[in-house]
Specification:
Elements (H helix, E strand, L loop, with lengths): L5 E6 L5 E6 L3 E6 H5 L10 H9 L9 E5 L9 H12 L7 E4 L1 H10 L6 E7 L24 E10 L2 E10 L9 H12 L8 H6 L14 E3 L2 E3 L2 H10 L9 H6 L8 H6 L9 H33 L3 E5 L6 H10 L4 E3 L9 H13 L19 H8 L22 E4 L4 H10 L4 E4 L13 E5 L6 H10 L8 E5 L3 H4 L13 E2 L2 H4 L11 E2 L2 E3 L5 H14 L3 E6 L11 H10 L4 E4 L2 E5 L9
Parallel strand pairs: 1-4, 4-5, 6-11, 11-12, 14-21, 16-19
Antiparallel strand pairs: 1-2, 2-3, 6-7, 7-8, 9-10, 13-22, 14-15, 15-20, 16-20, 17-18, 21-22
């Protein structure tokens, strides 16, 4: 092994992903969806040679160790085929080890080791981790445990050099009797958004429109570190035909987790809870979302209090798909006994490839990881020549402003400029009401835009949210946009007492700013702010400073650079396609600005 090890981590399950640890501190990560252009794309055979190797040049270098992560789906049955494919795709000899790590252990390695803490409690909650028979960590098992039980929650005491599992909640995998907060989260999402694959983002954002008491549903049953789902909830899930399983085909989607149709189709037709954009159906879905979010957050606070009592530590590292709930994370900051909270920017399964790579460094090679999640720009390197190649052939408006090898005068719907002051040009566009994409540098590894793959707009515009949701993103009308604010001004505008570089926490917009910022203030008066710092996001911070100087507002609205139903843009070509196919008015790809000859109407026009 050379002076600096290269460790590859691969997540073979939902939100398939790969990470490459370069030495103690370097880290690259890429989700499969970014190259396949299919959201939440599951890991499959063929990913490494067909998706990852072409997209990540580092994979052509010498690799010292590969760590693969699996959960309780069928992919682990193909572990032998995966190993053979990995050795061939990466050119590995028999002397290069390939090891497996269980799901929750990869989660906690990816949450604690990159955190700022020297010691912390660790918490992982999702729907289905690994089987007991596949665990690679020591934990006390219940007396009646068998190897097919699944981990659904794991509780840890973490320190540099040691991660100790204190307890786990297990589940038998039968969706007719779900258990744990992760199962509850997934089923709640699938009742309101059938076929959502358990992504609860819409549910949590819909909840403020509902009445949590309207349906008379109870809190969840919390017993120490275990969460159990009362019959009132399981019956609702059963009647709705909700399925927590991987939706492999349409027949499986129709059958649901409870066998046959389970009355699900009839129940939906007779007044179920599937989301509709208005009317009685909207009210029912919102009321269920409100009841579900309240039950989820109350139970989460209880198990977190249990973990605090067990560890007596001040800091918590929280991961798993449920850690994507900004509302719940905000309540943990305000109400839990922990003083500090770290949620990685990719806490869901897509982030476990980073955990796999860090497990390889720390547990297998004995190297103390130096990587810290100070920013989330972990995608493949993107340089100016690559951007030039993407814009080559686009018409140019002012040939003297662009390199001589970029031809102009070609027919087309777009044209490219190279402004002398790109920041000032963007401020002018945004002030005029235009909605602008921003593409620069390495992509965010997590699902939230943080200034490298962003859509930006004027948060003072009351029509902005509808415009972005309908004309750009093609999504539900109530979905909020996120504010990005200079760190220097964050506390003045939001009830935020700490940096929030990954917009993982919901916080109240201070009352005096709610009417001034309608584009980013949710119906309950909250927002999910990103704090921008000069050191971490220099171009975005400079843009915000120029925007503040022009308008008196240090806030812009921010959404992920993607079109309807798409993952974030990964390559320059993806970004240009998003500009072409949506209501975006322009796309900044520093140092270039790409604009439309025939612009869409402005928001509210």
């Amino acid at each position: 092994m050379a002076d600096f090890p290269i460790v590859v981590g691969i997540n073979r399950t939902q939100d398939g992903s790969i990470a490459v640890a370069v030495g103690e501190s370097g880290m690259y990560s890429l989700q499969k969806e970014r190259v396949s252009r299919r959201e939440h794309h599951w890991g499959r055979l063929g990913d490494l040679p067909d998706r990852y190797v072409p997209a990540m040049p580092l994979l052509k270098e010498r690799v010292d160790l590969v760590v693969e992560g699996y959960a309780a789906d069928t992919e682990i049955e193909h572990a032998g085929a995966y190993e053979q494919e990995t050795r061939q795709a990466l050119g590995l000899g028999d002397e290069t080890p390939i090891v497996m790590v269980s799901s929750h252990l990869s989660h906690v390695y990816g949450a604690f080791h990159p955190s700022p803490f020297d010691e912390a409690a660790g918490l992982v909650i999702d729907a289905r981790g690994s089987r007991i028979g596949d665990l690679v960590e020591q934990v006390e098992l219940p007396p009646d445990a068998n190897e097919d039980l699944l981990e659904v929650a794991s509780y840890y005491r973490c320190a540099r050099g040691r991660i100790e599992c204190l307890a786990k909640q297990f589940w038998d995998g039968d969706w007719a009797r779900p258990a744990g907060l992760g199962c509850f989260y997934v089923l709640l999402a699938e009742v309101t958004w059938p076929g959502s694959e358990g992504d609860g983002t819409q549910v949590m954002e819909l909840a403020p429109f509902g009445d949590p008491d309207a349906l008379g549903l109870p809190d969840l049953d919390v017993r120490g570190h275990e969460v159990h789902i009362p019959p009132a909830w399981t019956e609702l899930f059963r009647r709705s035909g909700a399925s927590g399983e991987e939706p492999r085909d349409e027949e499986f989607r129709r059958a649901g987790a409870f066998g046959g149709d389970s009355g699900g189709g009839e129940f939906r037709r007779a007044g179920g809870f599937a989301y509709e954009p208005g009317g009685e159906e909207f009210r029912r879905a919102a009321n269920l979302a409100a009841a579900g979010r309240r039950a989820f957050e109350r139970a989460l606070l209880q198990v977190v209090a249990w973990l605090h009592a067990e560890t007596g530590l001040d800091a918590l590292a929280f991961s798993g798909g449920t850690a994507l709930s900004a509302s719940a994370n905000g309540r943990l900051i305000r109400e839990s006994p922990f003083r500090e909270l770290f949620v990685p920017p990719a806490p869901h399964a897509g982030g476990t490839a980073v955990g796999c790579a860090l497990y390889g460094l720390a547990a297998c090679l004995g190297v103390r990881p130096g990587f810290r999640w100070t920013d989330d720009f972990l995608g493949p390197d993107r340089d100016e020549p690559e951007i030039e190649a993407a814009v080559r052939g686009l018409p140019v408006e002012r040939p003297e402003d662009v390199p001589p090898d970029l031809p102009g005068g070609l027919p087309g719907d777009l044209y490219v400029e190279r402004p002398a002051d790109l920041t000032a040009t963007l401020v002018t566009l945004l002030e005029s009401g235009r909605v602008v994409g921003l593409y620069q540098g390495r992509s965010e590894s997590g699902p939230r835009a943080l200034g490298h793959r962003s859509i930006l707009g004027d948060p003072r515009d009351p029509d902005l949210q509808d415009y972005v949701n309908f004309e750009v993103k093609g999504r539900e009308w109530f979905r909020p946009l996120a504010p990005v604010v200079t760190a220097e001004h964050a506390e003045r505008i939001f009830e935020l007492d700490r940096p929030s570089p990954f917009r993982q926490y919901a916080a109240a917009v201070r009352p005096e700013y709610r009417d001034l910022l309608p584009g980013v203030t949710h119906v309950d008066g909250t927002a999910t702010p990103q704090t921008a710092e000069r050191e971490r996001t220099p171009f975005l911070h400079a843009l915000l400073m120029a925007w503040h100087a022009r308008t008196g507002t240090p806030v812009l609205a921010n959404a992920t650079l993607s079109g309807p139903g798409e993952p974030p843009a990964e390559t320059p070509e993806h970004a240009i396609q998003t500009l072409r196919e949506t209501g975006l008015h322009a796309l900044a790809m520093p140092p270039y600005l790409i604009r439309k000859r025939a612009e869409p109407p402005l928001p509210g026009a």
